[in-house]
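[recover] target loaded
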């Protein structure tokens, strides 16, 4: 498979290594300093760039009939626009706030726990995410997906980085040197605490998941999620 990398930073470089190990070829490594030249030779594009460039990168792919995977976070308010563009162009698109298998299992666990806790009003939900100090967005895209998973099954209706008012889930975003990504969800009552936690030990899991998603997407039309890629939709 010929892959265009849109974003060639920390993630782009790990994705390149894993893609080459799996027998793929890299036909474009786009950063701030070059153009999309080479994109049209790609079977699929993988965007791990910056919040301000994700929409341009994804649009360029969809407008040119190139299937695109995006892992860039911090632009999700505009996700519906990219879904509409993909549908209008009969294209192929996957966005995931987190491509790792472990986190996608954790997303399911989070929703399962939220369903069980929904009627136990004595418990207060909060979250913590910890990432490296270069991260541009807060809270992390993964924390937002986790909060949405709780909101879907409980009376919570929003998340906040500030002091929460009723029905808001407080997310604390910590930035510590070299942390690849740690997410915790807490259910606190006066008498106890339930905590679930996912800790990424490196960026390998995110990158492998993105390459697997790219391999899966080629030849399909539509807007998909990691649930489709991992066959979790029917569960
Ligand atoms: N969904 C997931 O599983 C994961 C998502 N992420 C997300 O992926 C994104 C990238 O993370 P990371 O690799 O750590 O970040 P880095 O800052 O290391 O890399 C970002 C890259 O994007 C490039 N870039 C900047 N502007 C553009 C542009 N206009 N077009 C293309 N590339 C551009 C930068 O280029 P230059 O060097 O020239 O500035 C750099 O190469 C973040 O949003 C992060 O949150 C990260 C890990 C997992
Ligand atoms: O910026 C990162 O590094 C990461 N970003 C993603 C996010 O915002 O959730 C995924 C992962 O936690 C690493």
């Amino acid at each position: 498979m010929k892959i265009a990398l849109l974003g060639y930073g920390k993630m782009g470089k790990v994705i390149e290594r894993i893609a080459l190990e799996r027998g793929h070829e890299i036909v474009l490594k786009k950063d701030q300093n070059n153009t999309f030249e080479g994109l049209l030779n790609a079977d699929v594009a993988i965007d791990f760039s910056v919040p301000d460039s994700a929409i341009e990168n994804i649009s360029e792919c969809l407008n040119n009939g190139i299937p695109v995977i995006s892992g860039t976070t911090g632009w999700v308010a505009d996700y519906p626009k990219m879904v509409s563009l993909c549908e209008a162009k009969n294209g192929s698109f996957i966005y995931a706030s987190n491509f790792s298998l472990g986190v996608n299992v954790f997303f399911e666990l989070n929703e399962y726990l939220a369903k069980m806790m929904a009627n136990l009003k004595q418990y207060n939900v909060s979250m913590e995410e910890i990432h490296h100090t270069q991260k541009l967005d807060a809270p992390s895209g993964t924390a937002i997906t986790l909060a949405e998973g709780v909101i879907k099954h409980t009376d919570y209706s929003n998340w906040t980085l500030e002091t929460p008012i009723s029905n808001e889930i407080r997310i604390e975003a910590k930035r510590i040197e070299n942390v690849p990504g740690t997410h915790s969800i807490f259910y606190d009552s006066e008498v106890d605490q339930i905590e679930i936690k996912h800790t990424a030990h490196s960026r390998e899991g995110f990158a492998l998941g993105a390459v697997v998603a790219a391999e899966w997407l080629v030849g399909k039309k539509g807007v998909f999620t990691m649930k489709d890629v991992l066959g979790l939709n029917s569960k």
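[recover] notes: Residues 91 and 221 are 6 Å apart (CA to CA).
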